[in-house]
Each structure stands twice: as C-alpha cells, then as structure tokens.
Amino acid sequence: MLAAIIVILLTLVGVKLVQWVRIRRYEQEFFKRIGVPYVKPHLVFGSNHILRDRSNTQMAVITKWREELGEVFGFFSGGRPSLVVSDLNMVRQILIKDFHLFSNRPSMVIKAEPVITTLVGLRDQRWKDVRALLTPTFSMTKMKLMAGIMNEKIDTLLSIFEEHVESQKTIELYSSFQGMTLDVICECALAIKSNCQRNQNDKLLQAVRGFLQNAVNNFIMLAIYFPFFGMLLSVLSNKLAFSGRMTNMIVKHLKQVIKMRRNNVGEKTVDVLQMMLEASETIIEEKVGKEALSAIPSRKVLSDNEIIANAWVFLLGGFETTANALTFTCYLLSKHKNYQDQLYHEIISVVKDPTCAVTYEHVSEMKLLDQILSESLRLYPPVVTFIIREASEDTQVGSVTIPKNTGILIPIWDIHRDPKHWPDPEKFDPSRFSASSKANSTRHPMAYLPFGAGPRNCVGMRFGQLEAKLALAKIILNYELDLAPETEDPPPLTVPSVAINPARGIFMALRRRSTPTPTNP
Ligand code: HEM
Q1: Which residue ranges run through the membrane (predicted)?
Q2: Model ipTM?
Q3: What number of CA atoms fall less than 13 Å from residue 84's CA on the CB side?
C-alpha cells in the first residue's frame, strides 16, 4: 500500500516536473520568437547567476554581453525575459515619446508592502496621481528651504574631517558620506534627528546598510526562479505584516510623527513629510470635513499608508545615491588636482567670505562645480540597473516588436562610456558639460541619463544635486583632497542591489587650506 502511494506521488512529481521544464523551455524561447539575439539561458537560473556572480560586476557582465550581441539583446532571469536597449533612438521612444506605453517598471517578484505603495512600485493611474502630488515637494522653492538642514549636517561632516586632520588620520569617505546623507534625509523625509555621522554604529544606519546589502536575497532569488514562490511570499508578507527590521523601525516612527503633527496642526515644520501631510486625506478631512473630502477626487489625496511608504522610499532613494555621487566626485578630484584647484578658485570667488555659509544661490552660480558633478555622474552613475520599464501592450520600437509585459533595461553604465557618444570615454573631462560644448554638441539627448529620463525620471534629482553641491563646495573650500595609499586605484566596485558601491572604501588624506583670501569673480 505504502509502496503504491510512493509510486503515485513520484509519478505526480515526475509529471509536474516535465510540465515545468516544458513551460520554462517555452518561456526561454521568447527572444528566438521575436528575433532578438540573447544570452543562452540556464534552465533554472536563466542568466541571473552570471549577473549576480560576485567575481564580476553587473556592469562588466552587461558590457561583455553587449559586445557579443549588439545594442539590443535579451537575457533571462529564471524564465522572465529582459530586453536590454542601448540604441538611443529606441531609448528615447521608450522613455519619452511612447511613455504612455512604458510608464510602469516591471512588476516586483514579491509584491510586498510598503514598496508597492511607493513611487518606485506604483503602477498606471495611481503612480501618475501620486507622482503629481509628490513632485511639488521637490520644487526649487522647497529645496531652498531644505538647504538649511543640509548645511547643518554638512557642518557636522566638516567637524569630523577636522578631527581627522588634527589626528593626522586618513578618512574613509564612503561611510562618512553615508552617515551625512542619512542624517540629511532622515530629518528631511522622516522627521528623525539622527546622528549617524558621529555614531557609525547607529541602529538605523546599520539597518539601512543591511537592507541595501541584502535587498537581493535568497527569497528574492527563489521568487525569480519559481514565480509561484513569489506569489506565496507576497501573500504571506502582507498578511503577516512581515517586513524587515529597518522597515518596521521606520513605519513605527512615522506613525508616531504623523499623529504628533496632527495634534499640533498650527506648528509649521519644513520637511518632505510635512509637504506630504498637506495632501493627506486625514488632514484635509480635518480641515474641510468628511462631506467636502468625499467631493475631492481621490487622485488629489494621499492615504497615510502612501505617505509612510513614500517617506520610506525617499530614505532609500536619497541615502546611497548621493553618498555615491559625493564619494566618486571626491575620488576624481583627488586624481585631478588641476580641477580641484580651479574649483577652489571658483568657490572662493563666489562665496567671498569663507566663514559664511554656502547657500543655494551660491552653488547655483558655480558653473565648474556643475560640470564636475555632471562628469562624475557620467563616469560613475550611482544607480546602474534601475532605468527599467515594462511594455503595456505589443509595441514596435525601432526594428523590434516588443510584446506586452516585456521588461526593458537601459544600461546606463555602457551608454555613458560608449566612445560613439563620448570621445575618449574613460577620461575625466568636465569641459564636456561647459555651456559652449553643450551649445555646439550634436550628442544624442539620451547619451546622458544619471537620473533617468522622461516623466518617470528621478523625482529627487534636485534634492540630490543640491545636497551634493553644497557638500562639495564646503569641502573644497576648506580642504585639499589627496588619495590615501590604502585606496585601491581604480577602486573595485560592487552592485549589491541597483547602485554601485566602492567595494573596499575610498580613503582620503585631508589637508586644511590656509584661510583663503577672497578674490573677485
Ligand atoms: C545623486 C543622486 C541620485 C541619483 C543619481 C538618482 C538616480 C535615480 C535614477 C536613475 C532613477 C530611475 C529613473 C528612471 O527610471 O528613469 C531614480 C528614481 C527615483 N529616485 Fe533617484 N537618484 C538620486 C537621488 C534621489 C533622492 C535624493 C531621492 C529622494 C529624496 C530619490 C528618489 C527617487 C525615487 C522615489 C525614484 C522613483 C521615481 C518614480 O518612479 O516616479 N532619488 N533615481
């Protein structure tokens, strides 16, 4: 009897396995069917195991595939196809011209809160509504108000720099900038006054770092290879409210702050959270009453869940990206002393009195600073695998008919280093972004995408740029940067989730500048 049951079970398993293999093989013939060259997939992993192999960066793998297969090719994650597009006319059609057909990112393999309620994960009309509500939060006027908070945190960073100068120690820049950007975004987006710069063991800093390092974990891998597992995890994680330590910590805190802010309606705090609360359904209801609220179209109000989820995603979006941008810009300046000197002269000629604060207006005047940051973002775009879209219907793009639901990846690392678009691409040359170069350039507008492009580009672009510029201006005004001998040069990189990180840090020797003499611009 037992033997019969075992035989039946084994037969059932065998049949299911054969069915699964057939379906997977069919899925993995996708690119053959649409006539696009592709990376030959492994039955279970697709090509994901090659992309995630830690001995190589994802950029190096994609570059190699692109060299072998051309500007448009495909690869599989499990059975899920991704079309990699670096033909710039096609990129423009996807990101801008036919945006209405490519407005979503590919759906997450585990559809869990809070990420599915954020700008990153929302889809279709609700994404449009929430984006329209949140975009004004990052307007220039609002950014000017945020500059105060940014400057306060940058001053703490400089005091840490000063201690290193005093004790003649080199400083590891990446972790220092992570502390600073987390302190900035915590206060601006989450109303948390953190002190991650002074305390590198701060619980939140550790939790956010851990989250980003493990964002692509074994559960995600299983969900990629076996979508059924992803569906199961989505249900479980939402039913059991099972989120990571960092997410729980933030959600709990935000709930308290929202409650406090509501009880204190008169108090005006200038931060991203407050700006979101202005559009909150509960606050509007308090102001105008239930009946009037029901007359306001739902697209004009944010639920508490949406406010919390988006404050959480701003923390993730604003922390690592800007820390990366600052780290690699300082690295490049330490390697190109001529630019460091020229930049110093520009800063001092604009600020005039070095003891005064560097303001939003000051950095807006600094043309070379803008060129240097732009060139650094070309060579080291902080986010390398996140310009992704999904076709909402079968669409002809260039010579390819992209079927509905196909995921698309725009490989910016390759585009930014393609000699077709950037002569001598490995060279650090900020003059590529001077006003005259730009005016005379025939460069394709899609050849430069550090913040993505089109209606779904980076919502925090101005915030990140302002924070990076204020910090760079203050650093270069006060210190000379020399690459320390313990830094591997060029620095090895890793991509734990979607952003590049220096694998073993960037150490810098700092020299305090003698009190500068103001010069005329
Ligand atoms: C140097 C700093 C930054 C860089 C290089 C950067 C880069 C990017 C890129 C490449 C994208 C994808 C765009 C696309 O798909 O076309 C993106 C999206 C996004 N970024 Fe940033 N980012 C930076 C700073 C920030 C900051 C400071 C915040 C928030 C305060 C932020 C929040 C977001 C959000 C929410 C999205 C998703 C937008 C949407 O789907 O509507 N980013 N970012």
Answers
A1: 219-242
A2: 0.99
A3: 28
Number of structural domains (the chain) is 2
Ligand 1 geometric centre to CA of 137 (Å): 14
Pick the closest to residue 317 from 505, 201, 458 (CA basis): 458
Q: Are residues 319 and 389 in the same domain?
A: yes
Which residues touch 196 (CB under 8 Å, ≥6 apart)?
178, 179, 180, 182, 183, 186, 202, 204, 205
80 shares a domain with 129: no
- How many whole angstroms from 185 Cα to the centroid of ligand 1? 13
Q: Whose CA is nearest to atom 6 of ligand 1?
A: 451
Do 142 and 64 share a structural domain?
Answer: no
pLDDT > 70? residue 238: no
Testing ligand 1's pocket by substitution, the residue of 321, 378, 466 carrying the most ligand atoms inside 8 A of its CB is 321
Q: How far apart (Å, rounded) are the C-alpha atoms in residues 325 and 374? A: 10
Q: Please tell me the distance between residue 460's alpha carbon and the centre of ligand 1 in angstroms.
A: 5
**Whole domain around residue 277: which residue ranges?**
86-397+407-431+443-512
From CA 148, how far away is CA 270, in angstroms rounded?
10
Arithmetic mean of pLDDT, 336-364: 93
Confidence of residue 246 (pLDDT cuts 50, 70, 90): confident
Model confidence over 159-202: pLDDT tens digits? Answer: 999 999 999 999 999 999 999 999 999 988 888 888 889 888 88
- Three-state DSSP class for 275? helix
Ligand 1 lining (C-beta closer than 6 Å): 119-120, 131, 313-314, 317-318, 321-322, 325, 382-383, 386-387, 450-453, 456-460, 463-464, 468
Task: Look at residue 249 and tell me if it is in a domain.
Answer: yes
* pLDDT(45) > 90: yes
Are residues 4 and 137 both part of a single domain?
A: no
- Percent pLDDT > 70 in the chain is 92
The three-class DSSP label of residue 73 is strand
Q: Where are the alpha helices (DSSP H) in 135-265?
A: 140-166, 173-190, 203-213, 218-225, 227-239, 245-263
C-beta of residue 305 within 8 angstroms of C-beta of residue 238: no
* Atom 10 of ligand 1, nearest CA residue: 451
Answer yes or no: is 458 a known binding residue. Answer: yes
Do 157 and 230 lie in a common domain? yes
* Residue type (1 letter), 23: I
